[in-house]
Each structure stands twice: as C-alpha cells, then as structure tokens.
Amino acid sequence: MRISVFGMCGLLLLAGCGGDDGSAADAEQSSVEGSSSSDTEVASGEGGAGCESVEGETAPEGQPADDILGVREGMSIEQTRQVLQCRNASYAIRTSDYKPSLPDGGQMSRVDLTADSGLDRVVVWLVGPSGEEQVMHVERTIEFTSGNELPIASIEQELENKYGEFDAAAYGHSGYIVRSRDGQRLGPNNTNYTVCRRHTFSSESPKPCFNVVSYDIQDSSDNAQLASKFTVTITNQARNWAMVEAAQGKKASEVEHAREKAEDQGLEL
Length: 269
Hints:
The protein is of the alpha+beta class. It is 25% helix and 29% strand. Strands 1, 4, 5, 6, 7, 8, 9, 10, 11, 12 and 13 form an 11-stranded antiparallel beta sheet that branches.
C-alpha cells in the first residue's frame, strides 16, 4: 500500500505543498540591487483560535495548482502571515525588508517572510510598491528526524498528484514544471526552459516566463530510498514583473502629482 506523505505527516501540515529545483541555493543567489535590509521578529501564531475565517488561496478551477499551504502569487503580506500562522502555531515568523532599484531610477519594495518551526520552513518573497507588496515566490522545506523518513517515491507521487507530471532533472531526485508567459508548458528542448526554471527575482527586465514549480529531495545517508528532507518551490515571474511595473507606475504618479502641486502653488523665489 502506498504511503501518503500528506496522510502520514499531518503534524507537519504537508497538505498543499508545492515545488523547487533543489534551489534553496537559487533562492540565495537572487540579487537585490541597491538594497538595505532590516529584520523584524514577529510572534508565532496561536493557531486554532480566530482561524476559522482564515482561508488560503488556490488556483481558479480548471487551472494548474500553484499554491503551497494555501499561499500563492498575488497575496498580501497580511494574508500570507495569517494563513501560515493558522496552518502551524509553531511557526516563528520574521520579515526582512529590501529596496531594489527600478530600471528607470527610484526604488520598489521587497519583503522576505520566513516561517520556521525547526523542521518545517516556508520562505515567501513579496514585491511591489511599498505597502502594496504581493507574493511572487513561495518555498517550503521539510526535514525528517531519524527513523521518521518517508519513501522518496511516495513524496514524488504526492507532488505529481497535486501539480502534475514533472520533467525529471538530469541528476538526483528533482523535477520541474515550467510555463511560458501565455501559460503553455515549456520542455527541456525549448530555448527559454533553462532561464524560466530559475527561481530568481529581478527588477531589471521581464522574463518570457509565467511560473515554475519544482522540487528537490535529499535521500537519507542510511537508506537511498528514503528522504531526509525535501524542498518544493513556486516562483511566478509574471507577477514579479507586474509588481515592478506597478512600482514604476506609482513613482510616475507621485512625480506627476508633485508637478501639478508645484504649478498650483508656485514657488517664492
């Protein structure tokens, strides 16, 4: 009988996880130009109480799944925090703020939210105009304690059940689902496949990509058929660039408003 990763790991709240290319490394490599950061500690959620009305988001009916734990592209930081706190009361949540440069000058806002229980970590990137940031990237890593590892084959089956069939990586236990800007599935032989499967943030130029779902599983040193941890990640590059454009539009609007105000009031010279 196949072991369900979602059934066996109810305490880890695996239901609703999503994909990575083994790319905690990719995530760390994404550049944030001209940025400064500050960490803010946020108390962990209480779970249960007050959570009855808190619901995560999923893709519209008929569309491919694109959420992890009910967190998906387009959500606000408050929505994200509430969903994660209600998913796992053990999460300690912190945020880091950055100010990436815009292509035409000025800055936008990026907030990295991390929810970590010690064995279960979720990392979310939100970008956009300051105070209006939206989710563009979600990554989740689950580690197993000795003796509680799960079969790699079971994890891969559960991931496929939710997200669909993955393209296998050239090595290891990894897979990708990559889509172009119009939502079509890209394959390894397509020109933009390699570019689009990277989990990166950019404020410099749009990519010809919609989103990428990927996963990476690390096998146990004691048994190659069991997983010691796995990571799943979803990055929506279309949302990334939409929020860059929103930040550019807000900057232009602020300049125009200042110009009109100056014309109305004039200057005493």
